[in-house]
Design a protein that fits this description.
By secondary structure, the protein is an alpha/beta fold. It contains 10 helices and 6 strands. It has a 6-stranded parallel β-sheet, with helices on both faces.
Length: 226
């Protein structure tokens, strides 16, 4: 009999792709459309990774829930309009495609756990020809917001993995929190939207400075849990 599979669960925005320009633009346009002063871009980047309503709540904490929902819907419409006009650019970070193909060739199961919608994630992965590499795709459409462990737990179930053979990889403290809450190894990446110090403070076991470091870090992370 074989044991549980090894699983690498990746965040998307800020980890696989650099989507901050799109997110910041759509959020500024959403606030403006609702007659509200738009938040500064550094504040918007701070909430990337949360589910959309929770992200808006983080930017406008004193508003009521109804306004958070309304702003989230306006953001969705703005983002969809940008996509329809061909104005959404989500480039892969350098080295990410090579990393994913290497892990796949080495027998890792791959998954995504993201604050994106199903539609947004599908567009993103198809644009880069990567969708076939992933055995599990978990989005904000079907789960509580990070750092709740729901996305990671279902990814493990679908991949035939367990916490001891799984790692959550992401650029924000929300990703690290989700990995820890799910019992996985929690690995940060330094090329995204939260600083490395924040990731370690949240409990990250490792932080990678470059994608090509992740295969060895993943081995170390899982061997430490064996």
């Amino acid at each position: 009999m074989t044991g549980p599979n090894r699983l690498a669960i990746f965040d998307c925005d800020g980890t696989l792709v650099d989507s901050q320009a799109n997110i910041c633009r759509a959020m500024v346009e959403a606030f403006t459309a609702e007659g509200l002063p738009p938040p500064p871009e550094p504040a918007i980047r701070r909430v990337v990774g949360l589910s959309l309503t929770q992200a808006v709540a983080g930017l406008l904490p004193d508003a009521d829930h109804a306004l958070h929902v309304q702003l989230a819907e306006t953001y969705k419409r703005r983002f969809q309009a940008m996509r329809g006009a061909g104005q959404v650019d989500e480039p892969l970070f350098p080295g990410v495609a090579e990393l994913l193909h290497r892990l796949d060739a080495d027998g890792w199961m791959l998954a995504v756990a993201t604050g994106k919608s199903d539609r947004g994630l599908k567009h993103c992965l198809e644009a880069h020809g990567l969708e076939r590499l992933f055995v599990s795709l978990q989005t904000a459409d079907r789960h509580p917001s990070k750092p709740h462990p729901s996305m990671a737990l279902l990814a493990m179930a679908e991949a035939g993995a367990v916490p001891e053979t799984s790692a959550m990889i992401g650029d924000t403290s929300f990703d690290i929190g989700m990995g820890i809450n799910a019992g996985c190894a929690a690995i940060g990446v330094a090329w995204g939207y939260h600083a490395s110090d924040e990731l370690f403070d949240e409990g990250a076991h490792f932080v990678a400075d470059r994608p090509d470091q992740l295969p060895e870090i993943l081995k170390l992370a899982l061997s430490a849990r064996a």
